[in-house]
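Technical note accompanying the year-one report. For the benefit of new consortium partners, we illustrate the data format agreed upon in the data management plan: each record pairs a sequence with a structure-token string. No post-processing was applied to the example shown here.
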Amino acid sequence: MIAASLSLLCFPQSQMRLPALFTDHMVVQRGKPINVWGWDAPGQRVTVMLGGKSVTVSTDSQGKFSASLPKLSAGGPHTLQVKGSSTTTVKDVLVGEVWICSGQSNMEWTLASSLYRNETKQQADPDVRMFTVTKKVAQTPQEDVVGSWVASSANTVDRFSAVGLAFANKLHKELNVPIGMIHTSWGGTPAEAWTPRFIFSESDGLPANSVRKNMLSSYQSRLTANGLTYEAALAKFRPLATAFQIKALPQIFGDVDLSWTSADFDDSSWNEAPAMPVVFDGAFDGAYHFRKEVVLTQAQVDAATNLSLGAIDDFDRTFVNGTQIGQTDMTVPNHPSAIRAYKIPKGLLKAGRNVIAVLAYDTGGPGGLTSQSKAFRLGAVAVGDHWKYRKADRYVPIPESQTGPRPAMPEGRDNPSFPCTLYNGMVAPLVPYTIQGAIWYQGESNANRAAQYTTLLSEMIRGWRQVFEQGDFSFYTVQLANFMAPNANQFDSAWAELRNAQDIVGQEPRGGTATIIDIGEANDIHPRNKRDVGDRLARIALKKDYGKSIEWQGPRFQSISTKGDKITITFTHAGGLKTTDGQAPRCFAIAGADRQWRWATGVVKGNTVVLDRLQGETMVRYAWQDNPPVNLINSDGLPAMPFRTDTLPLITRNNR
């Protein structure tokens, strides 16, 4: 089954080739056999050499070779040399610890938009390195990715995953060995998109329990959907989306002042960006104006038929000399990451001075022109530097009562939320790179199906471990942060159920869960404090993978007992159990046979919290809300894990 899932069409190579992972500045895993693979002519003998070790293998009938070098100790730099029909040399190779970091937008979130940015940049160490996988949707497992290894420096870390970097920095500080992070994530995506196809088959020998059967039925129907149906649905969707966005986003798609797009407009008072990307954090959502002056020869004018701008988050309208040449809007699948490539009408450009203008519009989180300078080209002319820009109109959400309901984008196989697509494009090509483990920050996009998530996440992890064939490697998850408006009357929550699912999976062998129920932000799904997220993940790894004497989680529910008018909750990992503010512990709800939840008062006693019973209650929930105002921690400042002692039906149980 796995072989079938990972089969890749390989053609004979005229020259030896290595995957993108095997490039200068790479980090390989210490203390384990080092997997190296690539392509050459069929039957070609290939010798792989690194750190005084070498092995010779032959390519198969389709031109692929796989070698396993003996394990090495931490250190470097080394040179990796691979000799076949040609020779490839990879320089500045370090040996240390290698981890994958993956998930959705909170893992993708960069240091540039995070707290503690400046001090993190000042502490950048070149022994900490990151390989960022370029986003790719694929229907079948791919053989390679686009990306490169980058060493930490004050000039590079802004583009790193902030959580991945914080995790790596903590490990590097404690272990004093090189750390390599392979970052593969995509905002707004569900776990099923990161799951191997064979997991969604009932023939893989796993018990078909009812939850799993429901999950399989749901995803199998999506995987076998007729592609023509999607195209027809997309054609129906586009005019609805066009009409909706004029009402919902009038500051870009309505009747707006575009005089600033003219070549004659005076932008001398605007800011200037020496190079791309220009990404604004979530402090200002709305319209941004960009202008770029380009002086062309007649030959360049004649050759320039297309303008490429990379990705723009979220939407754009693009102009040349005051004339719109294209836009990317709600009708375009994956619009925040879609590559902008617009045709230029003949006669629009002229020899001499020309102006490109972009109206970019962001509705949440970081936004702007997000690609590197090399992605910006007017024909063959590079246009990725010295752009002028300014902030314009702030985004103001317009209520649905005025816009009508937002039409739903049809799900198609080029959608990053479609089952298996991101595994195929962004995980399968990493196999079988030798790793120590993976960290995972995802779940927001699965919250409304939380009852299913325990099975889904567990199965996804099983799939990854199976294809990497490196045993049950460590897999640590981040529990969803507190988010949304606090609600003192809330006793049921899809987000609480999702957190519980994450905790259950984290208790499986070689698992762990970092709780961040105390560092979220009510008004932003992307909390800016990524340093503590990475630190808490690293604590788990330092304890479980590296045997460090360190507290690796907050107080965890152990048992419940009732006596008279008291309920006693006993915790593990509760050394120095206390509250952050010296007040009574909050967020404990209790209920009895009537299933009516009410808030309980209590006190901390040793490693317990003793609650007052009001009407013979026997069930307890802690922090079972979207955004609970928690205050219970241990002496290491780690927050107590949300929990429930009841087995009442979940509110997401019927969601598919």
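Partners are asked to follow this layout when depositing records. Residues 1-13, 203-208 have pLDDT under 50 and may be disordered.
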